Fold:
Amino acid sequence: MPKEANGVETVSTGVDRALQIISTMASHGEPDMGISQLARETGMSKAVVHRIVRTLVARDFFSYDDGSQRYGLGSGALVVGLAALERMNVPEIAASYLQRVVEETHETATLSARIGHHRTYVRQQLSPREIHMSIRIGSQFPLYRGASSLAILGALDDDEVHSILDEGTAAEPAIDTARVLDQVAEVRERGYAYSRGERQLGAASVACAIRLADGSVWGSASVCGPADRFTPEAVADYSGRIHSAAASISQDIGFRGDIY
Structure:
């Protein structure tokens, strides 16, 4: 009996170490790593890391470059990652986090998906208050107007932001691109987007981007309601709550890091 327990414990420890190495490789900023670096960042001995990594290479989970003597994620990891991504239902994953925001703020919480240079509302959890915001699921908006849009825009790189604005001004010459760029800078500095009466008169919203495992922007989450209830104190409180919700959703779909 003790032997069996020890065997189970040994297998469990080996799996845990392998997963730790895989996670370290996946979250590392560079595309490849050496044995010494992996050992240092995981706290394991080089001998243990080398043994596990050799198995991962044999299973095509890691690749190995003879020239640099460094390891990277292999085709096996890609297959698993793509399979997990295909099975993810982001609106369902987000539902409990949005509901918690509603319970904490008593305002409506929404989820928007980025589709090209636009965003589309895909889910909402309504405020329990008699007077509240309600959005139409499926409605589409440009990425340069309103907090949910600006939250996405602020998480994109500068080249993509300018490309979106160039396309927008071609369709709407009246767009104040300098103002939008200032708003983008504010989003990145504060870690959330805020709008008041920008897209809809009498409405206010606080929003934060949601990222996928590869760092790309999936969309955004927001808390919205009548503007007169969005006092400076409320905005300060709501921004932390929606940022926490967006970060949790992002983590659940594989992202590791800071949203902005």
Summary: DSSP finds nine helices and nine strands in the chain.
